[in-house]
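Protocol step 4 of 6: structure prediction from sequence.
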Amino acid sequence: MNRIMMMFTAIVFATGAQAGDCSTSYNTMTLPDTPGELRIFAPYDYDNGRIIGQMRLGASGPVITGTWIESGSGVTCDSAVDGSNHWGAVTLQFNPGYTSFTGNWDYCGEGGGGKWVGEIGAGKVLFRGLTDR
């Protein structure tokens, strides 16, 4: 049974089609086509960025919690995550319709940081004027 579950998880992860362009305050991000209780690997077009974490279905809409990782940032962490010393915690709260999100990020899991917003299916129109890494 465990092997079947692992195969199912791999299929869901591998076939989690893109939700189109998700325009965010840190450029375009790739997200699953539909929300669910699943592991997330969400690359985004900012300094070789990616989010690794979990998506959960909450009462107010899907929530992603995990770690953002980039090639460089304003702070260098003492430890590496996924091969980089530029990382932090991230939480993205989606609306119930899974069309937009608001969230927060920090450096090295120590608080602080800034806001992160996005719109699914918004093309490549990028948000401007938010805290920059």
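Step 5 (inspection) to follow. The chain has one helix and eight strands.
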